[in-house]
Amino acid sequence: MPFPDILNRLDSWLEAHAPDEFRTLNPPATAAQISKVAENRFDLHPELGLWLARHNGVSTWTRPGGPGGWLPGGHYPLDAEGMRLGQRDMEQEVAWSLEDESEESVVGTTAHVRWVPLARTLSGVELVVDHREGPTQGAVLEIDQDAELWGVVRWKSVAEMFEETVVSLETGHPVVTALGKEIRAEYVHEDDGTWQLVWR
After folding, report:
1. CB under 8 Å, gap of 24 or more: what pairs does 147-152 form?
2. Single pTM value for the model
């Protein structure tokens, strides 16, 4: 299915079935904001640019909690600036690891100069888009230190991630986590009066 159609279905489903989640979606990022994510480093993957041109992440990514964590596992999509800052943080982590000769435990494990953070959870689990040349280019990887997942491929592409999310939301079909657990989203009424999608 074409990626724009997937995003149309996501918008339609959230608006109709999870309006509090729908309201967290930001307006489109500008071309300038998108170009700054990987500025003078590498070409940003087209699917990531297309997503940002539709929605510049969610309004709650800077303070996760409540609506906004509608990606499987409770991930909050970052905006373009969050992606830019996350990529630069990874650059710094890699540089420090080279200085203290600990690159084997960092580079391609917890950070890489060609990984662009896409989303994160309340507990710091991170999804990144791989921009390295090779078989995983464009794939969505997961970093979860508690589960000892170090850049494990979760989806082969950003489009595949969104398609599986949409299909699961529409049909109730489970998403399988990196640890093999089946999870589904439930729309839960919270104490503060809001409703949010919770994956469990």
Report:
1. 147/178, 147/179, 149/178, 149/179, 150/108, 150/109, 150/110, 151/108, 151/109, 151/110, 151/112, 151/115, 152/178
2. 0.96
